[in-house]
## 1
Amino acid sequence: MQEARHNAALSAGVELVFDCIAGRAYDPRHPHNNETNDMPAFPAALARGILLGAALISSAALAQTYPAKPVSLVVGFAPGGSADILARLVAQKLAAPLGQPVVVDNKPGAGATIATAAVAAAPADGHTLLLVTSGHAGSSALYPKLSYDTQKSFAPVAKVGASPVVIVAPSSAPYKSLKDVIDAARKSPGKLNYAAGGGGATTTSLAAEFLKNEAKIDMVMVPYKGSGPALTALLSGEVDVGFDIPSSALPHIKSGKLRPLAVTTKSRSNVLPDVPTVAEQGLPGFEVTGWFGILAPAGTPPGVVARLNKEVNAVLGEPDVKERLQSLGVEPASGSPADFGKLIESETRRYGDAIRKLGIKAE
């Protein structure tokens, strides 16, 4: 079925080019009139037709041969964190349907903007992809001098899943609830410190900033290059509190090394049903939901994007993948590239407005 659609697009492109060359004017606004339009083609119409036809041919041909080499899935955080865990799960499962290895490439630092810039500048052929978190939506407000546009520089491929942020403390710490942390921070402003994954425009970092604003407390963030290093620091007692995604924090919670204090979503998490929400603990209306997704460089052929979207959705629908994601506190997603693009657009407005209003600056 997919091959038939590609062949149809290829045939349409070839026919369009020959129609233009033959002198039949092409009007994209009224395609049904083109068959009977015998007037000479104007140069502009001829140029538009040839370019559109060539684009259709190129896109269809590339989609048929894609991928021609291993695919790189770039992650803006260090190994061991939530984004890395999800990327490796999806990459492993995508290799078979794509017929090529999918290699995870970690490029941590600067709130994932180093990795994002690298993918924005990569060839738009579908062989370099980017796994993003919801923090991507806040990057443009937090880093006004980025070398790329968080929306225009990318083609949305697929949303992978959604997850809460969990607020944790070492089991040896005196904090038994979020209220204990808030009370301690109010008693000694600026004394408590915390880790929030990769810092900058990340879901965990922004969740911490929103909590500080709502609770009217002053805590100091210690920046790390991802959840892995941040959790290591938390477990060693280097920081007092951590903001993380369940997928990376859960093993330490289950082992008893970390104590979960709250989740940031509207309702409790299925994997942490006994952990109250932030809203339940004195901050009504508080909600931060993290999400993950895959982007390609802008200009990636629509046929390649459609193929990737189809395969990612299929992987996310596999029973073992769904079970694994849900066990990590991630609810698997599905949907079209357009659906994911709309989410990024709305979240960019939401995060941007909040960052500017709160005056949040990159660490």
## 2
Amino acid sequence: MKTVLFYLALTAAPLRATSLDDAQTIAVENSPRLKTLRAEIAEAETRFESTSLMGRPILGVAGGAEFEAMEDGQDLLPLAYGYFSYNLYNGDQTKFRRTIASAEISRLKDLLPFEERDIRLQVKDVYLDVLYTRLRLKLLEKEKMSFDRLKKQASQRRNAGLIGDADVLEFDLRSTDLNAEIEALKAEEQTEIAQLSASIGQAVAPSNQALPEIRSMERPDSANSSISTASMKRLERDRDLGMLEANLRKAQWAPQVDFEARAGRLPSEGVIEKHKPRVDALIVAKWDLFTGGQQTALLKETTDQATAVATALDEEKYKIELRKTKVLNELSLLKRKSESQSRRKTPAQRYYQAMLEEYNRGIKNSPDVAHAAEAVFDIDQQVLALHYQWAKAATELERIIGPAVPIQSP
């Protein structure tokens, strides 16, 4: 229900023209994903602060009673003392916990710009859809105006008795078909604008911009250093944290040495003068020689997880490298197709003009002129479609390696 109300609110609200940069900025500001990530960073920073306190000494008080059976009866002795303890050595567990907490902060902060880039590119994808639909609409409206002019000329020739009704109806039919296509594209445009508004959380409409110009793209020389995505960053974070967790598990096998001091009414512990306050201090070293295999199992589990993540990271790099190669090849192919289609436009226009002149002299009929006119506009639509596909592929390349560097075509 909330989704429906949100959609209705977006479609009912007045839309203002928004550039791509502004739409992306709004999406970043409103993104729940980025808000969640920033909250995770704040949580990780708090966790790091808590690990920084782990190595500090502990000061406290204790109280109770000691029951002891004696030869002349039973005795209940009160206990009340203060204590001070400080860990002298724990196999660097504190250091590893701090390192893990610090690494978590760094990984989350490193992930933030990649998540932001993904959000910007998602908005760009929808924005390009709207621009493409609008440009298709302009071409169809231009084509309709052309057929309306031809229809008007045909009506004048029919009134003069030079042609029959079939010639007029030829242009009228094509104009009617174009009207239906235009209305369908207008509905598609409104749907895409609503989708764009929903994706950024604000009612907007793209400003009238052209699609990005087709150009050649520089191929990155280094395959591994050039590809970098949010999914790879997550896997790298998990791999590094897994290795640190394994080091922590190993450190838990080390002995633990503590210093402890107590003062007050302490347990008797063989002391004759039980009721008198006293002070004692001791250094205790503990080393678990056998824990039922728990530590070994936990270490193996942590190591296996780190290995699995490292393998998944290698697989992700391989997949992304394939995607990068495929997209670069697609960009090159689309560029060649666009150049080929553009070279067809001038001959098609000359053919249309020649056909129109022969039609006016009564040599050609309406279907011939209509076919020639459609050929010109079909080429325009194909060139526009290639520009749109190129822009989408360039966006995908940017998602893989960051902003691509344009170079001049030879």
## 3
Amino acid sequence: MRVPRGIGGFLVLLALTSIGCARSRPDAPEPPKTAAPAQPLATDKLIAAADGHLKSGLQLLDEGHLTGARAELDKAVEVYLTAPGGAYADTRIADAYRRTLDTVHMRELEALAAGDGFTEVLPEPASIDEVGSIAMTEQPVTEETRRIAEDAVRQEVNDIPVELNDSVLSCIELYQGRLREWFTEALARGGRYLPQIRATFAAEGIPQDLAYVALVESAFKTGALSRAKAKGVWQFMPATGKEYGLNRDWWIDERSSPEKATRAAAKYLKTLYQTFGDWPLALAAYNAGPGKVQRGLERYKANDYWALRRTRALRRETKNYVPMIHAAIVVAKAPEKYGFTYEPEAPLSFETVALQSAVDLRTISECAETTLDTVRLLNPELRRLATPVAFALNVPEGKAATVKECLGKIPPERRVRFRTHVVARGQTLASIGRRYGVRAADIAQANALSADKRLGRGTELIIPIPAERTTSVASARPRTTAVAQATASGKPISYRIKPGDTLSTIATQYGTTVQHLRKWNGLRGSGIAAGETLTIYTTERSKGGSAASRLDPLQAAAHE
């Protein structure tokens, strides 16, 4: 079973590990029911306690506070797991437990789909981890493989000497066989970036065929992250990336920028070649580090990479690395000779908009009349679904003017899902967080501060406002009659927000929903501030939060 990655996966994992996959495995025995059944009053209190955590967790999830939501939803499940006799102590507890798991799982999937503008975008596995550790048995290669490779090298113009020894030919056979699908996908994806990579390498005066280093490193995936924490198309480690000018902070990681990382890779490869005077050794150093290669040469008195490869100086990954690059150059430049058919993806085409304020990428996608995935594809260095305050944003070609005009018409409070706050005397991250209904840890992260940082008066802070959910269970379910009629026949009133108010508490007070409050007031998130005014459509029935117009707590949790 594939457990979802990211924010939601903790719930599935918790449920499966806690009850031994009893609901997933047909052969798993039902937990014993020998324990004495809980008393009715105790059962009511237990279910009410779990429902309280469930409701709180779902509300936090709606507001974008994913860490808090996780804690509350974990507690809801934990109530049942630690009950006397366990989660199956009696029929009522078992039914409530299953209902809780189903609700949590449903909302988990929604959370994954909707995302959170301030939650880091999940990376992808790096190819170097997948293919670099393959144990290749260098059996004698076929004469056909050798003949085709020699023919390809003879007909193609290569700007780097390519070896056709048994190690390289074995990699060619690997690409044709075991890694055929992976190699085909990498070739197709490379169409996006190869023209720009070649142009950059030509400008730096290094061989353009080194572009295929990126194929082996990452399969041209900008979000690739290795087990060693190297990232991006060129798999820069944090320290090396910083050394070559790739910035990394809470908002961005330029190792994932194809343009910036390619320039850095060109400079780094050029430096390595100047150090070793040999491209195979330079490539080995790119993978293992120059110090590792230099020590190996000195210890084993080797004079080139292929001699060093026969020693114990290099790990298996580095021993595979250079042959795989040479093989990739041969196959990628003559794919038809090896039976590869694919449609290369078109090079990315975009314009740049200089932003002077932070913007949620979902707002950008609406303004550019494109998808969120397209905006993210054009700006892979963004670690969040929002931009920093000052950022050169790439948008689809022909959309720069449209985006500028669109953003100019959006009121500042709707343009982004965060506010700025000027620190007053005596304020702390905790007190500011309480004022805005935001975790102090989130404010600290957004401003690259430590959690216990003392704030100076006049300091301007970014206050992340929870992201609006893009998926809602309620979208497929009818509202109660009173709520449904509120917009059509209700009378508008103005409500001044008091300290401590949230959209949820206001909605409960007036017998409406958070979604309606957002719609009536043009809100894109759940963040509000004391002193602001909301428009609320009321009816005699809904005013004051009549019980007839409100859902019970568990229904509200499922609908909101």
